[in-house]
Amino acid sequence: MSHELKKLAEKRDAILLAEIGAWLHMLWKYDWRFIQWHCGSAPKYDCEKLLNDLRSQSPGLFSFLDAPDPQTLNSLHALSSVIPIPQSFGFKHFLGCPQQADKAIQNEDHLSALLNDAHGRGSGIEKGLPYNTLTNQELSDSSSSDSYIYANTAFGFQQKLTSSCYKSDKLRRALNRWIEHHLINAFPVQNVERWKRILKRFHKILTLCFPEVLAETRKPANDVTLHDQTQAAVAFFKAALAERVAHGAWKDLKDAQGKPQYTWRVLVCRTDTFDYLSKAITLPDLLGRRESIKSAHARVHTLLEIDYPLGAEIYRDQSTLAFLVPGEGAILDWRDENGSALKKRIQQIYREETAGEMTLQLRDALLDDPSRSVYTFGNMLNAAPPHNIPDSVEVTASWHGKTQVEICTCCRLRPQRSSKGRNICDVCLTKRVSRSKTWCASGLDTTVWLDEAADKNGRLVLLACQFDLRYWLNGILWNSVHSILQEPYKDLVQHSRQSFGKTKKGNYKPFQSALGKLIGKTIVSNYKNRFEAFFDEVLWPDWKDIIPQADQQTKAAITATHLLRQQPSFPRIRRAWETTLQFFRDIQDKIEQGGLVPRIPNRLILTGKFSTTNIWKYYAYDTVIKGIETSFVWDADKERLISADNLEYLAKQLGFRPRENASPEEEAEGRLSYLSRMIAEQSRDRGLEFYERNRPSQAEEEGSRFRLRDVQIEVERHDYTPTVSILTEPQLFMMLVPATHFMDIACHIQNEYERQFSKVRNRLPLHLSLISFPRRTPLYAAMDAAQRMLKRKSGEQQTWRIVKKRRSETSGETMLRLKQTDTGVVMPDITVKHDDDYHYPYFFTKGFDVDHGSKYAFKAPLPHAPNTFETLEHISKLQEDMEVYYTPSTFDFELLDTTGRRFEIQYDDKGRRGKGTTTRRPYFFEQIAECRRIWELLAGKHGKGLTTSQIKALSMLIEERRRSWKCQPDEPVFQQFVVDSLRNIGAGWWNALEKTEQQLVQQAAQSGMLADVLEIYMEILKQKPEQDT
Q1: CA torsion 584→586→587→593, rounded to 10°?
Q2: What InterPro entries does this protein's entry cite (predicted)?
């Protein structure tokens, strides 16, 4: 029996030390002088200059890179017993690795040669693509301290990068301290927990700096950060090194025929996390389950990166954990020192963290074939997660000896045991109590209670925001980003077609002029001027899975597209999901920091004499104050009760009315005084009785109810935001927020999306779903409703006709108005600010000949039909009446006035809801702002408006006619009826509106959008028109 994992554990110190060196191999790029050099405004700055700087500035770091500490070097040389390395090796070899490849190979410095190869894999440069033809940037003003260049996100959003972004001295000092205080003194480390602490500190230092700066200054390759490129190189390097340690002895990078010998695979651990979370009854249940998944992910990460360092994590979300691992060998069957297979070790972790509720399915966990190209792992990420299968042995064991016992209402697997009064099993109870205990002990600056996250009307909104990244993760949509602008597409196609096949003499045809010029003399020479050999080895491997069979004409189109596109390299795909993840994180921060939802300053604290000492620890109990039910949490450590309700809602229910013209501070103070008085009056005679929620009159086990006498009331300052983040992932963001603020949040998301993603909005849709529900609604109902909404997809196969186009030369913007060719639906006007960007803002056209397009027009495969190549045209060059493909972003909502309402959420194959003539949801994402504007016009927010009775009468009248007439919105008779109704309901109001405002309200009334606007503002937000106040 071979013990590959044991071998990796024995060489752990050496492998991880080499990994640290690999992380620093481009350290010299983290300096503004590097940018100045590449932009042509300063002398050369490279690794040798860095070492000279470090010699005096950071001696510890210099020593580590140039001449490692003897103990450190001895640990590294432990590899020599398996794979020989030169005794003269130092990490300065890694610093110059991309430039010293040939020298490293000549000196048999395989470690440096391997990193050089990994560097090429990560950046894509090993394929010899035409990077020399990219557009180089110039510093805005090289003589000024305010000079800058531009850094792009993965989707073309430009941000200025200045010298202040490069905190080189700070980074070097931090690394110097880390080496001297954490790394050198730790050797030999051996202990896994110690390595976790060392690497955690190391990566914290790097992630504060590397993600902010560029690895490449040339456009449009200036979207990849130093962190992205380094992480990719480290992943390839570590997996290859682990393979050699496991199998012993070096092997050359290429065989005698020049074919690469190192291959990699992607190992993916997938769970149906949403289903697992959706079983939660209470919010602490859900948060406890979320922590179980996070803990499982973290343990698997440690297992594969530190315990047995065989790979590197390359992707993570709530359901997926992906690693780059060696391509040679049956990885999942590798054995540890006890003979346990890696597969069993991984499955055991998820089984332990979920207490047997989940057995990880690893049947299709590895890519079928080892491949040097890893971008296609996106296809694995896009596949539906396997159904969760519980561990039958563990579940069966939990029922041993149990008869006449009810099943747990949370996990629906285990029996209710000692916690039967709460209808859940001990495992689920432990998770629930753990979250509540953590909340009590963490300073109470957050909330974990639905009642506390509700608004003043007792309503919450579950916000779910989802990017459709499918075709970006699998690489197909990178074909739609135009990288090389110098050569026209049609010329490349023609010359590619002429380069295939053989001459009359039987020789392979050479590179035709445009191809040779673009690709470069070196590459042409490497392939002996045989174009077909170049195509087969360099281009075809990236396309064979997308287009299995291709004739010569298709191959010519592939060649032209491949050479002009933004290359879907490993770090670029990482950059894509990091961009969307950061977008969601920024939204979360904006909400949690009080920018969109006001922070709550105080909670009520109750103490006194308790009727029993047997009170369930950290449990939320209910009590009744003046006939109104409210919640408090028992803080066992401090022996006190903490309010877990929205105090504004509670005061409102108890009859509190703020003093007229009171300031917000005066209103809050008056509210707290009122609540204190109400509690004091309620508890004056017999105290307050607390009981288990939903069981106010039933006699249950001890601890389910108690009485508090001699009540002492205290107002304690906590300052928290009443929101709860559920998931913040690359493709999905979910958060619970007070209902009164959800439209502010929705408008903020819309504005930020249009600002950051407008150049690719036609190819990167964002779907926003909002579920409103009363505070005592079971959480699983809201989660199920959200899950149903998240299943909708906007049809990428839909085509739209351009009915209006307007371009502004001064602002660098182009406006389009699109009409769907099948249904006639008109999308709100979209505006894209593109300036002089000819890389990102392109539209797929339908049936448009590339020969009739602009010099920037090119062809690429449609993402939903990759065998079909269509012309992409720059937005500024589009013309009216052209047909384009557009994948719209959408916005949908539902008010769960009953839990059964969620079953009405269904979508057809075109992503539409409803039946017959009343179909209106989901709306286009761009209509969020329209909804707000329509309400402002009706409610008189900025002028004369209607009363509540007028608005409701108007809506009822129009919707009744729609149902009884069974008419379409554009039928002339119905249109006239709507106009007459609007004019008659309030002639003064209607006539005061501008013509464009009248058209907006009229179209909303005709389409049915008006009824939805009223449901949002009058039913969910509980807002009233100005005329009522």
Answers
A1: 140
A2: CRISPR-assoc_prot_Csx11
Residue (of 602, 638, 600, 645) closest to 618 by Cα position: 638
pTM above the 0.90 mark? yes
| pLDDT at residue 143, rounded to an integer | 62
H-type helices in 741-794, by residue range? Answer: 742-757, 779-790
626 contacts 678 by C-beta, under 8 angstroms: yes
Per-residue pLDDT, averaged over 350-376, amounts to 79
The span from the CA of 684 to the CA of 709, in Å, is 8
Per DSSP, 415 falls in state B
- In angstroms and rounded to an integer, the radius of gyration of the C-alpha atoms of the chain is 32
CB contact at 8 A, 891 and 927 = yes
In angstroms, the CA 424 to CA 411 distance is 8
Closest residue by Cα to residue 989 from 1026, 956, 1019: 1026
* Whole-angstrom distance, CA of residue 981 vs CA of residue 989: 12
Could you report how far apart the first and last alpha carbons of the chain are, in Å?
A: 81
- Among 456, 557, 519, smallest CA distance to 868 is for 557
Tokens standing for residue 920: 């209106």
Q: What whole-number distance in Å separates Cα of residue 126 and Cα of residue 537? A: 12
pLDDT digits (tens, 9 = 90+) for 792-838: 887 777 899 999 999 988 888 999 999 999 888 899 999 998 888 99
Query: If residue 924 lies in a helix (H) or strand (E), which one and from where to where?
Result: strand 923-924
| 113-130 pLDDT per residue, tens | 888 888 888 776 544 465
Identify any residues that bridge with 768 across adjacent strands, giving them in sequence order: 465, 891
The most distant pair of C-alpha atoms in the chain lies apart, rounded to whole Å, by 110
Going edge to edge, which strands form the sheet with 320-326?
Answer: 264-270, 320-326, 312-316
CB 783 within 8 A of CB 804: no
CA distances from 902 to 460, 897, 1014, 1015 (A): 15, 9, 20, 16
Which pairs with CB-CB distance under 8 Å and at least 24 residues apart come from 36-39?
36/139, 36/142, 38/136, 38/217, 39/136, 39/137, 39/138, 39/139, 39/142, 39/149, 39/217
Cα gap 519→541, rounded to integer Å: 18
Residue 269 zone, left/alpha/beta (φ > 0; ψ -120 to 50; rest): beta
* Strand duo 830-833 + 813-820: pairing: antiparallel
3 state SS of 80: helix
Whether 552 and 532 have beta carbons less than 8 Å apart is answered as no
Nearest CA to 556 out of 515, 513, 510, 616 is that of: 515
- In whole angstroms, give the CA distance from residue 133 to residue 148: 22
Q: Residue 885: how many CB atoms within 10 A of its CB?
A: 21
Query: Is the domain covering 447-483+573-599+721-795+888-913 a CATH 3.40.50.1220 domain?
Result: no
pLDDT of 558 reads 94
Strand stretches in 157-207, DSSP E: 158-162
Of 430, 30, 762, the C-alpha closest to 754 is 762
Structural domain boundaries in the chain: 4-138+159-247, 264-390, 447-483+573-599+721-795+888-913, 488-564, 603-709, 797-886, 924-1028
Q: Residue 625 contacts by C-beta under 8 Å, 6 or more apart in sequence? A: 650, 654, 678, 679, 682, 688
Whether the ω angle into residue 284 lies within 30 degrees of 0, i.e. cis, is no
